[in-house]
Design a protein that fits this description.
The protein is of the alpha/beta class. An eight-stranded mixed β-sheet has the order 3-4-5-2-1-6-7-8, with helices on both faces. Helix 2 packs parallel to helix 4 and helix 9 packs across helix 10.
């Protein structure tokens, strides 16, 4: 079974100048004036908090500010380099930056299997037969940066469409035939003929690293649930790999951690805990075991 990785923002946070999403949104909203205001902000789902902030300022302007900030502040470190040295063919990342590409020291090129602007089913950079999929958008296309509730909801719907009856295309050579997942139960022509991270996620053994998997990530929870259902039903001729969630931390599991990990386990996810003195040590241990 082919392995793929899903890399979150955790590696970036190890760098001295790494920026958490909470810190980014605080930057957009302005410094909280009181501890009470800060506590209220922490209680808000970040997708809806972004919508609140954008009600006072255009979302496009906010995304441009975020892109500019990340381009200047987020840097590569040894964890990016170590992951790239594993030789994994497909790496999915929720990050907008290009730290993984830069850590390899190679010249990656844009290689989208299908054209899109706002969403990111087909958004990848390639180097010969290796691919990095920016599943939440990328800095080179500010509009694609996924933050708000509206964009998350639309993305989830597009994935659902892709998995059922397909998504439309303007490519003339397809003669109107939609892009359709190989895991769709519809008997349509050209099914699975365009590569996408969604099919890779379902087919491969996925290792999630440096990603908290917040409950707002509905599209990923849905795909994890779909993988588990396919595995349980054991549909003939369908290859589906398991999901491995690597919890890397410098703290013992909190009640919130235990609750989330319990749900993941119930959905067939293999949960592995890497608790060390520092986050950096925890990531080192995780990558060592992957190697």
């Amino acid at each position: 079974m082919e392995r793929c990785l899903l890399i979150g923002n955790g590696f970036n946070l190890v760098s001295d100048r790494g920026a958490s999403w909470n810190a980014l949104l605080n930057k957009l909203a302005g410094k909280p004036r009181t501890q009470h205001e800060e506590d209220i902000r922490k209680a808000k789902p970040f997708t809806l908090w972004f919508e609140e902030i954008s009600s006072k300022k255009r979302s496009g302007d906010l995304k441009s500010e975020i892109a500019e900030y990340l381009a200047e502040s987020v840097t590569t470190n040894n964890h990016h380099e170590d992951v790239m040295s594993l030789g994994i063919q497909n790496i999915l990342t929720t990050n907008y930056d290009y730290n993984l590409e830069e850590a390899s020291g190679e010249a990656w090129y844009q290689n989208h299997p299908a054209k899109e602007n706002y969403y990111s089913l087909f958004r990848r950079n390639s180097l010969t037969n290796s691919h990095i999929w920016h599943i939440h958008g990328e800095l080179n296309n500010v509009r694609s940066i996924m933050l708000g509730h509206e964009q998350y909801t639309g993305y989830n719907q597009k994935i659902a469409n892709f998995m059922s009856y397909g998504v439309s295309t303007e490519a003339k050579k397809r003669k109107g035939k939609p892009y359709l997942s190989k895991y769709s139960q519809k008997a349509k022509g050209r099914k699975g003929d365009v590569e996408t991270w969604v099919d890779i996620f379902l087919e491969s053994e996925v290792h999630i690293i440096g990603f908290r998997l917040d409950y707002t990530e509905n599209h990923l929870w849905s795909l994890i649930t779909r993988k588990n259902n396919i595995l349980k039903n054991r549909r003939r001729g369908i290859n589906v790999g398991k999901v491995v969630f690597h919890r890397c931390s410098d703290k013992k599991q909190s009640i919130e951690d235990e609750a989330r990990l319990s749900i993941l386990s119930a959905l067939g996810v293999d949960v592995r805990d890497h608790t060390a003195n520092t986050y950096a040590d925890a990531y080192d241990e995780c990558i060592k075991r992957l190697r």
